Every structure is written in C-alpha cells, then in structure tokens.
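Annotated sample (chain length 307).
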Amino acid sequence: MLLRPPSLLRALASPPPLTRACVPARRTLSAAAEAAGTASAGDAAPAPAVPRKSGRKLAPPPRDIVKTALFLPPGVEPGAAVTPDMVIPGSNIVVGPYAGDARVKEAEFVGSSARARDCPKDDRPEFAVLGRSNVGKSSLINALTRRKEAALTSKKPGKTQTINHFLVNKSWHLVDLPGYGFAAASQSARMDWSSFTKGYFLNRDTLVGVLLLIDASIPPQKIDLDCANWLGRNNIGLTFVFTKCDKVKKGKGGRPDENIKVFQDTISGLYPEPPPWIMTSSVTGLGRDGLLLHMSQLRNYWDNEAV
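Output written by the structure step:
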C-alpha cells in the first residue's frame, strides 16, 4: 500500500494554500523499519500516579469533543475505518502504523542557544514546545521527561529567554522555546525573542513539529490563534496541546471541555483538515502517554520517509 503524507495544513484566512505536509519527510521506509515502528497504545509507559496534593480524579473527556474531526497520521488512508480504541483518549489523534515505543528512558539537558544558528547541529529529530507564558510549558516538559527540574519553572512570566535543547533517549530532542505574550518583559525584549524564535522555525531542518500549548482553563486567547495562524501560513506542522485540563478558574469563564470546544470551532475556520490536538494535565498525568505515543509516530515517519 502506498503511504500517503499526513494531512496538509492550509490556512484559509488570506495566504495561498499550503503545500508542505504536517511532518517533514526524510528517508525511505524499509520493511524492517515499518515492522519495528508498528505498535499500539499499550507500548506507552504506565500513567503516573496522581500526586497526593491533589486527590481529584479527572473525569474522562466527553466523547462529543472529538466528534468526527479526527487527525489521521501517516500510514492511515483517508476513509479508513477507525474504531474508538484506535483514538488516543482525550484527543482527536488516531494511532497509526508508525506508532512505536513511546517510553522516555532518559533525558538530559544539552544546552541553551541565544540564536537559532547556535542550536545543536545533528540529524536528530526534534519537537519544539511553544506557548503563551504561564501556559505550563516547563511543567509539560518536566512531566514528559519525568524530571522535576528538566525545564526551569517559575511564576514569573518570560523566564525562558533562550532556545533550550533536551536530548531524550539519545535519539531525539525536546526543545523549550521562550513564551510569547509575557507581560513582565519589555517591548524590546519581546521583539528580540520573537525574532529569534521565528528564525528557529523557518530554518530548523530537523524540526518534526511544534507542540503549541493552549490553556484550557480559560477561554481562547487571540494571541494563541494568531500564533497558530502564523505557523500555518509558514507550513509548520503543529499539535495543539491543551494544558491545565484539571482546572476550573472561577470568574474566567468556562470549563476546560467548553473552552476546548470553542477553540476547536474557531480553528475549524482556519484549517479544512483538523490538526491533531490532545488534553493534558501536569497535575494528574492526563495525556502524557498519549502525547508521547503521538510524537513517536510522527518521529518514526520523519526518520524513515523519503525526501
């Protein structure tokens, strides 16, 4: 069966249709590699226990959130029969034949770069973590790697001011990028950080995709929609990662599932084909294993598909 590329991101606002697939292609897939990459959600690491400081149990995400707008990963043909057990819980992501071992066995900090051209120069694939300040970027990285201090956490927005690389399993990178929209930073600093971050996106050949973090505890923010639109216009594959799905903030409007639904309805006007999205919580561990499984299938496709 001929492998189709993943869904294309086509921003419909004003730019011309996008022509690059969500996941960059690289080398030809061999039969052995395809067999090794085929796995199910059971290959993911066991879900972490709920920390004692929170006795709450998060209810399963409402099924009507997912609807039929599923993200079909590489290797899943359009129109293929998809059963509920093929969809990662709390997401619209179908598990395809490229899904593989999603466990994080080790993670180490590689270094910080003040400029995109100073980032590590190797062929390892990488995922960039991006989001508004205080959205939970560092907490997500810590949860994925299961290292409490892998990324610097702080209550002061704008703490991350460099491009920080973490090497996972000695085979791929997780990249912590500066947050956007941080009120505590000066206007000049915001412009500088935005400039070198965009330079990273536009010139990083090893970038598999962006994990764009969205705070599900508050209604959709224009700055997040603008960022998603910019990534789409520049043909940069992304996954929406909804954070803080265990929280309901009084006076700020809406439950997480309601806010996610509004965000989805808004985004659907920009993308004719649904980008992947997943619900997460660094407190309860919701979505950790599913996100790693999703990243494994994108990474395996990137590693093995022809240029």
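Annotation: The CA atoms of residues 45 and 103 lie 5 Å apart.
Annotation: Residues 187-203 form the longest helix (17 residues).
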